[in-house]
Write a structure and sequence with these properties.
With 75 residues, this protein is of the alpha+beta class. It contains two helices and four strands; from the N terminus they run E-E-E-E-H-H. The strands form two sheets. Strands 1-2 form a two-stranded antiparallel ribbon. Strands 3-4 form a two-stranded antiparallel ribbon. A hairpin with a 7-residue loop joins strand 3 and strand 4. The N and C termini lie close together (9 Å).
């Protein structure tokens, strides 16, 4: 799958491979290239319990939960 509907990748929070990840943070810098951080569902749920949660993280939790509820479709 492409970056928008990602399956399998590196979780920046537990620092390891996960079966499914979603974009959770965009890192902007004053000069030079920025970056992005992806998160797995267990880490996303944990992070979403914090007081200050970004909309991007909320969307990541919803996206990952929706994908776990749907059987994987053949391409």
């Amino acid at each position: 799958m492409n970056a928008e509907g990602m399956r399998g990748g590196y979780c920046a929070w537990h620092k390891g491979w996960a079966e499914d990840v979603a974009l959770a943070a965009i890192i902007e810098q004053g000069s030079g290239p920025g970056g992005s951080a992806y998160v797995c569902l267990p880490c996303a749920r944990f992070l979403a319990q914090r007081r200050e949660v970004s909309e991007l993280l909320k969307e990541a939790v919803a996206e990952l939960e929706a994908r776990t509820e749907q059987p994987e479709q053949a391409s």
